[in-house]
Amino acid sequence: MSGNKVCIILSDCQSCSGLSNEDMNRMLGALKGGAKAAHALIVKAPCIKESRKEIRTLHIEGCDRAVVGMWCHPEKIGALNWLPKKMSPSLIEVVDLSIFAAKSTKCSSQVDKYVRVLHASAAGLAHAEALKDRKIPFASKSVVVIGSNDRAKDAAKSLASKGIHAKLISMEPMPGVNAENLEVIDGATTEGLKGIPGDFRIAYSRKGQRKETDAASILLVSERCLSKAVPPKDSKVKVVPLEQFRNYSAGGAKVKGMAFLDDLQTLTTAADPVTPAWHTLLEAAKTAAANHMADYISVIARDVKAAGLLEMLWKEAADAGVKFIRYDDKSRPKISKEDSTISVKDLVLGESLDIPADVIVAPITTRPWEPMFIERLFLPSDWDLKSRLRGPQRGTAQSPCDGIFMVGYAGFNKLLDIAEPELDSAVAQISAFMQKGCHVARGAVAVIEEGKCSACLTCVRTCPYRAAIMNESWKAEIIADKCAGCGNCVAVCPSLAIELKNCTRPQIGAQVAASTEVVQ
Amino acid sequence: MMRDVLVIGGGPAGIAAAETLLSLGKNVTVVDSAPFAGGVPLELSCKGDIECTRCHVCMPRDAAARIRPSECLEVVPMASIQSVAIEGDVIKVNAKISPRYVKPDACIGCGKCAAACPVVGALVAPPHGSIPNAPYVNRELCAHFTSKKCNECAKVCPTQAFNFKERSKESRTEARAVIVATGLEPIDPSAVQHYGYGLYPDVVTSLDAERIISKYGELRKPSDGQKPKKLAIIQCVGSRTTKGGVEYCSKFCCKYGLRIARALVERSPDSQVDFLYMDLRTFEPRADALSWIGDKKNFMISQGVAAKVQMSAAGKLAIKRTTQGDASIEEGEYDMAVLSIGGQPRPETKVLAAHLSLPQDGFGFISADDAKRRIFVAGSCKGPMDIEESFSDGQAVGARAAACLGVRQ
Amino acid sequence: MSDKLKIVAFVCENHAMSAIRAASIAGESLPESVRIIEIPCTGRLETPQMLEAIGGGADGVAVIGCLEENCYHDIGSMLARGRVNRIKDILKDISMEPERVEMINAASVSGAMLMMKLRQFESRVASLPVLSLKGAIQ
How many CB pairs under 8 A join A and C? Predict the structure, then answer.
């Protein structure tokens, strides 16, 4: 492709440019006589706003792309709404010349700068090969919620009550969960994900059979997979999961000691204690003290995370008689095998204490997500496949993929009282997403050249949007409707088989050449 | 003209609510008392150097920049609410708008005025993510008003966007629903006298430190403009106390204190940073919150309440604190102290809650909303929250308000 | 117009560009020598393209992208940093100064800090001996 004709649109609004008449004429002359591939169209108007209609209906024979130079911030004059209609948005480059303004008020010296900037953009755009943006209406009307915990149930019910068809895919059985607009698929393991926002296909296996379901959007309410609370070997203590404490308190007899632990693991491993549910723990301890469930009630924790207004609950629990004991990493609490006590070195007193603990109440121990689960769902993950997900902060529950939302430990580790409002906000965002009803596929996409692919899978592993897949002929293919046009795959392909349509290699090369040319 | 929703307060919660409402097809008016809608995050700085530290300062600001061009969004800055009345289904709000002296629609964002202004702080340029994206003139500092009749900014402005004759005006908004999102203000640290705020110039609050970093790109001592060599970050200032401050825990300070510490430690390897805390109430597990420390030599974290800040004989800040393990007291010498200050409800929140008959708790936080009368509450005016939680909450409340107005989702 | 210092800055269209815009509206414009090339993501940039800039006569190349772990496209700036480090090694191998190429991470809110880092980069490059390649490849 030798390069197409690029139209340079610029108004001579001297008030905003700060250029004098001579400078403006000099600039217009330089633009016209510039890069061979460019066709400079100068719009004569005191302000580019007044040429709105003219620019919108612009049509120059043989010219399907434009560089629009703004002397002001494009957003300020609503320029983003009235660029040439006949041209694909990904073939229009808006250059904000105001950022190149000098601190000093003398602008003549800036003329060369402005000309160079516009020529560089035009030279580059000449090599672009973008497709047109297009709107793809959602093929599915459902939302899939993946998760086995209470929050997953709540989310699914909440969506269903808003009139959105919700499907709950859960590994655990979900008896008694039914509502209008809600479909429960329990005992199912999610296996894979394909498709584009608005038309996702989720594969799962249930009772030995592999099935598929459709969704416009997906909500991951995971949490890490949970394992049952296991008391330490050979000890006489009874372990009550914190989540079931309410049932326990109804029928428990008075004991000598009841200890609330921040994490059961802390007795046996050096792993960091994870107590997401401080509100529940403090309420439980307070209830235990108020109901005299034991002679000695204690909370043994690395950090008492009674943050925010929970501080008052902590005070209430302490006033009710609960003892708070902090330990540190160098001296973990240990359970004794002979009698029911926990020995821990108190940080303030500096001495070892034996805490009576016939009953230990602790949150259910968690273990991290299986890395493969992330891979199967084609979500972005660490290079070394750790279970931490990371990504850009576009919102509290958003993943890089449009239409896929994550809450709870799916995003980052957090306290439960943050995870819960996050869920409400995720439901809010999903409602808004479903309201949109269509997915905008950008014209700026990456395309793989046939025959050059060496099937190394690098692009498949790199793409943050999982738009690169291996097709049936075992060659890489980019799903244009999913591609966000970032170009990361282009740069990592060892066979140089991929090109980004509106940021091609010749395009960058032309801009580099234009930027480094010696101005005589 | 009737609006769908009026959002009172343009901080993270207000912006998040506005974004959600706009995407659900509602038209929104956001009213804010400050010259820019954007809230406290507008004054905060990014805490990352190479890696993002998830301080969430950019999240609401990027969201505001995204919704700014929307035609269904109206933002009224510099507004002071005079009265709120509910007549049937309509909520009517009267506000007094202070003059900005710059016409936001005329401003093209060239920055020539900011470069020409001779007085530091008189012309305030819009930080990223503020609405409107135009400067404002601080009348109290501006040389045009104080006496010298300066006109430097107006002279260089290419679009004559300056109008020094602008006056206060009245504005009336009618809406079918209202979201109160008035947020928090910092606790006054001079109430905590023993930390020396206001006495020693190099004792600053975390908010002051962020402002310095936002302006200069690095932390500098107010006394001489140099980078501090030995710095103490003191947590829990003004929170969790019954003397001078508030009784509750402000929730966000552990997270931000550590983020500030990390930013300083990583950007200035030749500065020593000591972090003094009471409890580490980070939202992530401790190991994750502290994993960045690695084997860095210029950072020390210690669980021990800082008791006092005084001036030592050598003219440095002497900080006495308790250490864990034994109840002994240590004293260290520093050339700068950053007090991690907590937050409390604004006085405006109390007034608004009274106007709208919303219940408040003993601390002044609004404890319930009134969905029947279409009055909702979002963000940290309900209880201490950090930016991420306020933003999340705003999104959720925005959706609830939209649902209440009868949109079929 | 004499042959002045030339610094080519590859700027990502997301956070980095927002930072530059915010700084310019605050009155801090780009240094004279900096020429901006806007790209969708710094991850798009390939190693040869950075070398092309130097070969074409740029005294310094700055790659300005989002903060790592908050990259708009998830991994772009991290990949870019890896490539910039490789370029530094290549420059060392051909007896050129590795300080000519630098990766700068910027958040959308860090306009002031980005300008400070750009000015520091500019002065560092200005203090290096003049490139003998200048004007050779045109």
Answer: 123
Spans of chain B, pLDDT less than 70: 323-327, 407-409
Q: Are C14 and A486 in contact (CB under 8 A)?
A: no
- Alpha helices (H) in A227-319, listed in sequence order: 245-251, 278-290, 310-319
Residues of B in contact with C69 (CB under 8 A): 51-52, 54
Residue B243: the pLDDT is: 82
Which residues of chain C are at the A interface, by a Cβ-Cβ cutoff of 8 Å?
A: 1, 3, 6, 8, 20-21, 24-25, 27-30, 32, 35-37, 39-41, 43-46, 49, 52-53, 56-58, 66, 69-76, 79, 83, 134-135, 138
Residues of B in contact with A414 (CB under 8 A): 283-284
d(CA A377, CA A203) in angstroms, rounded, equals 9
Q: Which domains, from first to last, does chain B contain?
A: 2-98+168-183+346-404 (3.50.50.60), 188-342 (3.50.50.60)
Instruction: Please state the ipTM of this predicted complex.
Output: 0.92
Angle at which helices C76-93 and C47-55 cross, to 10°:
50
Q: Is B23 on the interface with A (CB under 8 A)?
A: yes
CB B311 within 8 A of CB B202: no
- Give the predicted TM-score (pTM) of the model: 0.91
Domain that holds residue A492: 442-501
Residue A503 touches partner C, C-beta closer than 8 Å: yes
Return the structure tokens found at A83.
Answer: 């660029």
Count of domains forming chain A: 4
The answer to whether residue A17 neighbours chain B at the CB level (below 8 Å) is yes
Question: Do A516 and C73 count as a contact with CB atoms less than 8 A apart?
Answer: no
| C-alpha triplet B30, A75, A135: angle, nearest 5° | 95
pLDDT of residue A383: 37
Q: Are residues A316 and A340 in the same domain?
A: yes
The fold adopted by the segment(s) C7-126 is Rossmann fold (3.40.50)
Give me the average pLDDT of each 10-residue run along chain A (520 residues).
72 77 83 64 70 77 82 77 79 85 62 84 85 88 88 88 91 84 90 85 91 92 59 75 77 82 81 78 92 92 89 94 88 81 81 88 64 52 40 67 73 62 83 87 87 91 85 90 90 94 89 75
3-class SS string, A434-476: HHHCEEEECCCCEEECCCCCCCCCHHHHHCCCCCEEECCCCCE
Residue numbers of A between 59 and 98 with CB closer than 8 Å to C? 73, 96, 98
